[in-house]
Structure formats: C-alpha cells, structure tokens
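worker-03 picked up job from queue 'complexes'. Input manifest follows; two sequence lines, order preserved.
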Amino acid sequence: MSEILEVKDLSVSFDTYGSEVKAVRNVSFQLMKGETLAIVGESGSGKSVTAQSIIRLVPTPPGKFIGGEIRFNGEDLLQKSEKQMESIRGKEISMIFQDPMTSLNPTMTIGKQIAEGLMKHQNMSKKEAHLRGIQLLKLVGIPTPEVRIKQYPHQYSGGMRQRAMIAIALSCNPKILIADEPTTALDVTIQAQILELMRQIQEEMGTAIILITHDLGVVANTATRVAVMYGGKIVETGMVDEIFFEPKHPYTWGLLGSMPKLDKEQEELQVIPGSPPDLADPPTGCPFVTRCPYAMNVCGEHMPSDTSVSSTHEAACWLLDERAPKVDIPESAIVGGNDIYV
Amino acid sequence: MSNEREKLLEIKDLKKHFKLDRKNVLKAVDGITFDIYKGETFGLVGESGCGKSTAGRAIMRLYSATEGKIEFGGEDVHQAKSKKMLKEFNRSMQMIFQDPYASLNPRMTIKDIIAEGIDIHALIQSPKERTARINQLLEIVGLNKDHGNRYPHEFSGGQRQRIGIARALAVSPEFIVADEPISALDVSIQAQVVNLLKRLQREHGLTYLFIAHDLSMVKHISDRVGVMYLGKMAEIAKSDELYHEPLHPYTQALISAIPIANPRIERSRERIILEGDVPSPVNPPSGCSFRTRCPLAMDVCAKVEPTWQEYKEEHWVACHVYDENYNAEHKARENQKVERIHV
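worker-03 finished. Artifact:
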C-alpha cells in the first residue's frame, strides 16, 4: 500500500488567558491509500485538533502550529497559504463533523450546499451541479432525492443530515475523508446505517478515511489501523487486530477494560482511576504516569520513545524497555467472545 | 432475586400526550404497562424520540400523565395529595439528569446544591450536622470535602455527575430515575459512574429506573430491560435473555446494531440494518408502529395493533409474529424458506 499522507512531529498549542495549552505534542503517523485509520482517545486527548490541523481548520489565533510537517502529495500543508488551502479543502481532503445539526447551513437548501463545492472545484454549471447533487443524494441513500435536494436542513432527520454531510464531503471525489465522531450524535440503528454507507463508499471510490472516535465498537467495526491518543500524544499504533488482541500500552488496556462485556457477568467495570492531565502544564515524562498502575520512577521523568513490537505495531511505554519488569495484559483487557445475538 | 419480589412501582397503561396545536397531538408515551420490583434496576432503552425520558418524567410526576395509573408502594402517584404527603412522596423518589452541565445551578455552591433537599425537607436541624452530612455525601460519591465550597464550573463532567448523584442521595430516597446519566461522559469516566451507581444500590438498597440508549451499558447495570419504540413498549425481559434471545424484530435489529469491540466478530457478523428513520410520533403508522421498518412485516401488521402478551415466563412482547391468531403469513414464509434450503 502506498502512503498518501504523512504527519511528522506535529505540535499544536492554544493560547488561553495566562497559559498555553499544548493540545498536540509531537504527533507522527502515516495514512495509506484506501485504508481507514481510527484515532481513539478521550475528550481532550488532542484527536480532533490533530484532524483539524490536517485540513487547517484550527483557528489561528488562539491556536498556533509550533512545529512539524503534514505532507500530502509531496507538499507540506502547513506552509500553504489560506488561498491555496481552499483548493485542497473539499477537493482533495474533506471532513464530516460530529454534529450534523450545526455543521450544515440552515439558510441554504441542501442542493445549494452540495453544488457549492462542485461549482468551485469541478467548474460545473449550476444545472450540472444540481443533477450531480441528485446522484450524490441517491448514492448516500436518501429517498426521493429530486424532492429532498430542494429542502432545507431542518426538514431532514439527524441521520439524513449526516448522509447529506457525507454527500457534500464526497462530491469532489476527495482522496482523504476525515470523519470526526460521525456517528456519536446518532442512534445505534442509524449509526449502523452510516457506518455501512461509509464502508460501501470506500470500496467504490477507494477513499482513505481518518475516523476519529471514542467508541471502540465502532473502531472494531470499521478500522484497518488504530492510533491511540492520550494527553496530546500517540501512545500506541497498530493494525486493528494488534490493538485489540495484543495491546501493549497500559492506557489501551484501560480503555479495553472499561468497556462493558456483553457476554460476561461483571460485578464491577474496570476503571482508569483519576482524570486526564492538564495540558497547560503537561508532565515531562509519560502523560499517563499519574493514572498508570504500572508506573515506575523513570516514567515521570522521561518520555518513553516509540518501541516497535512488529513492523506495523508501535507503543510508547517504558514497560517495553528491556530493563523493565515483565507485565502481562490484565484479564479485564482481554477482548471476550461476546456470544450475544448477532 | 427471590421469587416473592415486592413491587415498588406499578405502571398501568401510562399515556402522556402533548398538544401541539388544535389538530395535532404528539403521543410521546402511548399506553405502557410494567412493574419495577424493589431493589432491582429496570433499564429502559430505545432510540431518541421513543418516549423513554417522557415515561421517566411522568413516573417522577414531573409531567402529569394524560391517562393511566402509576402506583408507588401501593399509592397512586398522580392522585391529589395533601402538601405533606406530596413532600414525603417527592423525598422518596429522586432523579439524576442527563446533562451534568445544565442540571446544576451555576450560582450555588456544591454544598448548597447537595443540601437543598435536606433543607426543604428539614431532615437536619443543626448546622453542624448539616455540614457533617454534606461531607459524608461528598465522600460517598468519591469527592473531596473541601469541594463543597466550590461552584459547578470548577468541576469536570464526571465530577458534576457525581454531584448530581450526591444531591439525589441526600434525602435518602428509595427510588431513583437516572435519565441517561452517563451519555455525556467519556468511556473511562462512564465506568467510574456506573460502578458508583452499582455500589450505592448494594449499600443503600436503592431501586433504579435506568434510561439510556447505550445498550451495552444498560445490559451491564440492569436486571430487566424494557425496549420502547414510538411511545409503546415493544419487549420486556430479563437482561440476559433480552440480549441472547430477543423476540421482537425491533429488539433484534437494535442489538444487532451494537458495534462489538472485537474486530474478528465484527468482520464475520451479519447485521440487520433497518431502513429509514423513526416515523413521526405525531402521525404514527396504523397497526404496529414498527411495521414501516420491520423486516418481518405482514399484511395484518398495518391493520391490527399487536397485543402485549407474556410469551415466555417474564418475557413480554408486542408482535404479531408471536400471536397464533395473526402469524399465519409469517409461518408460511418461514416454511417456504426451509423448503428452499432443502431443495
């Protein structure tokens, strides 16, 4: 598989009253053609800021890029002017947001919102864009698209708005689609519809997807590879099976352990004690040190480096150092059989 | 659970309709019947707009019911009561709300928020005891006693939800309605709050009505689960049974839609994906309200509303597929399928 996007040592901070919040700290990853990379983590872990940086939607100020590169098509997106970015956004890289209620323009018809991109990037006439809009709505499974295209967002249900958002995002056949919690605001039955739709579209058009989510079920359902973020850093990356069946980082163990298991009777859920670090004053060592049950002296002082476990699997944890004591995966983090009605 | 369980709440044919204008009525809850036993957790699930929150609020008397009866400990909730009785009733039933940001008064300190119920019900007279009780409550929910002097904006979502729980516990209730108490929280924090709720139930013998749309968390916390669709109850069963042998086609689709955190299972799974959206409760479909999205819909489903029957022991369902009077078409179809496989 060839690489389509590479993020190298990206650091993003936000200026607030009295302090600088270091939301993303030295994040590096690659995105391959046609794959789905899931970025998981709690709120405040920096996953959304990372995604917004790729398409330069981080408001500056208060945000600022401290360093790093985002290489797409051999060029660094961070060096581009706002004008140049406009020809990339929507055309090469597009994004769908969590909340379909607030990310569509309530004063424009859905048709107009789809046509906007088509007329700008594909030089289509109004009429061509309208016809293409009907096709796109049909593609994302909206019934009677001829009628629906003339309607406003408030006339759509939540699931249909997210479909319309996907139609807008896909209108110019982008190479990369960034989906920031695309199903969090939706009910499970509608979530299943939208995930299925994204999968179909990826198969047909070969789009690479960056999926940002905190739901490990959604990750298991859609991802090819997974990056786990914590405290503004990527703490573990690997193929989806490696993350679920051979996780190496204690934070990943904690995440897997705090999911209720449908096939087991558990009296207590495993919890990660405490709360995430304050990124205005991030710890010098590993960001997880205060909540980690295996923390050693070295963890608070030095940030562990990324250690390769396999050619596709990396984790940043001192436990992987040869001098560290050997720790086995806790039982709670072992992904169960889940023999429920399927 | 013993065989002779004591009913704490009996809900009989509860209806709550909202009048929108002269012509339109929104039937948020349209005739639901179920019991909640003492000491159990009853989970109520369904998609947004199915009426689960309205049902919870009607039980709490936050809404007056349009029709039907709710009996709490043998007494009708909606019956006119003297002021004194009403107060006692309000004390024994408390609520935990979904949004920990909107449900705490930003201008009150934590200790005043927690003690508001204590003050209203005059449960404690001396200021010293009041402080002691507040500190005790803060400790129960895992907060620090010097948190009492702070204001809600100083706390994270998970901490605020703990404050909401402490407020509900302050008046020593018997029954707590938890309306989506964890859906606004992060996964690792959700586990903390759920463990706290379970521990409190063990220690204080509480009864919960747990309303949520996250089905895996509901299974974890509930003894029995009810599934609602468009204001009606589709199915009620013990939670294990509901997740392993769901009867109603809606429950089957709902459970099949839960993404399981195991990539191997996800790859091999055949999902039932429902088409379309939930119809409007202002103008619900005739007969069975689920028929427009039901993969098993028969002709009769448009004409006759399914009856609420106990199909197996303690497993209630409202679906014509399980009704001998109406399921001829379904059986014929199933037989055809079997024949096709054999040929």
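worker-03 released lock.
The domain at 7-281 of chain B is CATH 3.40.50.300 (Rossmann fold).
Chain B has one domain: 7-281.
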